[in-house]
Write a structure and sequence with these properties.
Layout lengths: L1 E6 L2 E4 L4 E9 L6 E7 L6 E7 L5 E3 L7 E6 L4 E6 L8 E8 L15 E2 L3 E6 L1
Parallel strand pairs: 2-11
Antiparallel strand pairs: 1-3, 3-8, 4-5, 4-9, 5-6, 7-8, 9-10, 9-11
Length: 126
């Protein structure tokens, strides 16, 4: 079992920045990748970014490339999503997720992840 606790959401003006944190616990050795997803009201949950545990390789959806950075601080046992140049369309509940299976490519759909955080609200005002 893996538990994920996330934090860092809030209200920010367009152009501002936020850093989301996700702390995994439990059987963390089983994690193969961490991902971030978001869900806006009335919308389906969509992929944001992912990072592989072993290689540290990352992948982002096109709309956040150059603005968001996913990273891992192993010393603090924390995964981060640094969000810069935020836009109103980034407004959503953001979820961190843990994948425990091995995949050949980057996992970009919710069903590929096995554990989820509770979600944290990010609101970007215009």
């Amino acid at each position: 079992q893996v538990q994920l606790v996330e934090s860092g959401g809030g209200l920010v003006q367009a152009g501002g920045s936020l850093r989301l944190s996700c702390v995994p616990s439990g059987r963390t050795f089983s994690i193969t990748a961490m991902g971030w997803f978001r869900q806006a009201p009335g919308k389906e949950r969509e992929f944001v970014a992912t990072i592989r545990r072993r290689s540290g390789s990352t992948y982002y959806r096109d709309s956040v490339k150059g603005r968001f950075t996913i990273s891992r601080d192993s010393a603090r046992n924390t995964d981060y999503l640094q969000m810069n140049s935020l836009k109103p369309e980034d407004t959503a509940v953001y979820y961190c997720a843990a994948e425990t299976t091995f995949s050949t490519g980057f996992s970009v759909v919710p069903g590929q992840y096995d554990y989820w955080g509770q979600g944290t609200q990010v609101t970007v005002s215009s």
